[in-house]
Amino acid sequence: MNEVVSTAHESVEARSARLSQIAEDVLARCRAHGAGQAEVSIDESRGLAVNARVGEVETVEHTRDRGVSVTVYLGRRKGSASTADLAPASIEATVAQACAIAGFTEEDPAAGLADAELMARPGADGFADFDQWHPWALDADSAVALALECEAAGREADPRIANSDGASVNSGESVSVYANSHGFLGVERGTSHSLSCSLIAGSGDAMQRDYWYSAGLAREDLESARAVGRRAAERTVARLAPRQAKTGQYPVLYTAETARSLVGHLLSAISGGALYRRASFLVDRAGTQVFPEWFGLVEEPHRRRGFRSAAFDGDGVATRTAPIVENGVLARYVLGSYSARKLGLATTANAGGVRNLTVTPNAENLDGMLRGMGSGLLVTEMMGHGINPITGDYSRGAAGFWIESGEIAYPVDEITIAGNLKDMFLGIEAVGTDIDPRSHVHTGPILVGRMTVAGAE
Fold it and tell me: To which CATH superfamily is domain 12-236 assigned?
């Protein structure tokens, strides 16, 4: 095979066909080297990133990346190798290296491709289109102008804005192919774009920093540059003159963007790797009550314009909409084919992680939740990673606002919030309706009824 070289103006269809051709060639080479099973992933991406600070351009970066990852199985022995060079000689050397590695590894009963009957099957027109391809014809000059406009809007929004950490504009697109020796071949393509601004208010020891960003798969999903800058300024100024909360037990309300971290802790605890290593506080908890009875969490891999929508997972297994938590009960774990075999279970089509998640709301928006909580802590920022995955013990630095009589009283920082995730999950009292759309995890604010807040004595 002669290498087919990409060009800057190559259509996405041509890129997909070229990478698919390379994937088929890789699998043929694996068979020629005696591999009983093989799989290959090929990724190609390009993008533009611009950073501006205090009215000046700091960086303009064009990126073009590509890579091939090959895994072969000699019986139950596995070998993997990768390269960024798509030339035939490099591909041949990579396949040979993967086979050589497999020859020196011990057999693993769980190794191998996912079962052939589980592979996703395309329709007459191929796999479903989830509306994830929205390239932005953005040149460097236009990106710089947007970044400067964004930062200027923030710096001009309030006289207390004293400095800036800058504004950024990013735009990228990627095409990837996964194929294996079951005859499966799937192509995914996607775009991502973002605008962000970080500002500093006050002076000396009284300085405070905050930011805002907008992200989406399509240009029209983004807030305007001026709106991002102004929102960053509002958030930064609101943090001036913070106090420490008094140490005690209080309700804690996570904003939507910080509430995603609670979902992340759950996913870490129910992922296959943590479970078969017995390194999770939720080992053997599938089918048991983990959240309040009204709480639900569903995975929606086929959501249109979802950040992680896909017809197949990293093993080629067909994805499907399915609950993770239903009526407060942990309905299932998050497993790829390897971890499922290690646990004696069936794959949940989660090789490579979860797709799109939605947490079921049961309350009003953030303002309504504040009125209902009375007094307590509103968390807008988290610091540190003080989580014990085996016990569920939780302790993290935080900042936000103290709430009195359902209203924001003053900003707080240099505090720690602590508890145990098992108790925190069961102690969730409300999930709000105002979802943060900038992630594959769709959740509103989450109110935990009681946690330890460590601040001033």
Answer: PmbA/TldD superfamily (3.30.2290.10)
